[in-house]
Amino acid sequence: MTSKTLREATLRRLFRNVAASAVALFGVLAVEGAAAQGSPAEFYAGKNLEFVIGYTVGAAYDSNGRIVARHIGKHIPGKPNVIVRNMPGAGSLVSANHLYSIASRDGSVIGMFSRGNAMYPLLEGDAKFEAEKFNWIGSASKETSLVISGGATPFKTVENIRRNEMTVGATGAGADTVVLPAILNATIGTKLKPITGYPGNAEALLALERGEVHGNAGMSLGTVRTARPAWLTGGVVNLLVQMALEPHPTLLKNVPLALNLATDPIDRQALELVLSRQSMAYPVLAPPGVPADRVAVLRAAFMATMKDAEFIADLERAGFEVSPMPGEEIATLIKRVYAAPAEAISRARAAVAVGNKK
Fold it and tell me: Which fold has domain 41-142+281-323?
C-alpha cells in the first residue's frame, strides 16, 4: 500500500469515527432534551403562566380574559399560577406582535387580543404576524352585533335604511361601529353614516338616547344586555339587523341576519370574511412554535374551564354568554377565511378601507 493510499484510508476511518461520535452525541442530546422537557404536568408545576391581554383594565376583553385566567389554572396539569399582564396599544396589535415574535414559545405565555386581529393581515394591510401560525386555544363566547335605531325615528325596517341615510354613533377609524356599517353598505345596500368622535360605547348609547344620532351599527349584543337590557324587550329601540355567522338562538329570533340579506354570492362571501370574527369573539391563543403536547393540554384545560360552574357563574355575572368555540375550530375558521376567493377578499378589503378612513 502506497503512502498516499494509507493516508486516504486513515482519513476515511477518522471521518467514520467522527461521524459515529456525532450521531451518538446528538442521540444523547435528544434524549436529554426530551427528559428536560418532561410532561406538561412537570413543565407547569410550580410555574407562572403569563396571560397577556391587549387592552386596558376594565375593557370587555380584559373582563372576559381575567375571568378565564381566574379559572383555567386549576384545569391545567401542574396547576400553574396564572398572572395577567395588560399590554394595550394600536387596537391590541401591540400584544399580537409581542405574542407572535417576542413571547416565550415554551407554553408559559398565552394571550387575548382583538377578534379582528386574526383577519387583519388579510383585510387591513401589512402585519408583523401570520394568523394561521398562532396556536388557537379557544374563545369563551361568540358575539352578535346589532344595527339599532331609536324607537321614535322613522327607521323601522331594513328597507328603511336601504332607502334613506341613517346616522349612527361611532368611535373612530377601525372600530366595529365604523367598519361594520361600511361592510353593510357595500354588501347589502344600506345607507348607514357613522358619526365619529364618541369615546366609547357608553357615549354612543347616550347619543342615541339624546337623539344626536338615529342609531348604532356595531354595538354588541353583550353590551346591550348589560347596559340597556330593556332595549331587547321594551320597544325603546328598533332591532334592524343582527351581524354574526349564525342567528342568535334565543334573543333575536325575529331580527334578520345580515348574511341572509346579501343576494350576490361575492357580497355574501365578503360579508362573511368580516363577520367571521364574531364567532371567536374573545380569542385565547398561544405563540407559534409551542410544543404540541402543551398546546393540547391548554386546549383541553380551556374546554374544561367552559364547564366549570364557578367560571360560568362569573362569566354570566359579567354579562357574557357562555358559548365556547374550541381552538381547533378557530384554526379551521381562520384557514377557511384565508382561502376565500380573491374577489371576495378584494371587496371586503375595500369596504374595511372605507371604514378605516372615517
Answer: D-Maltodextrin-Binding Protein; domain 2 (3.40.190)
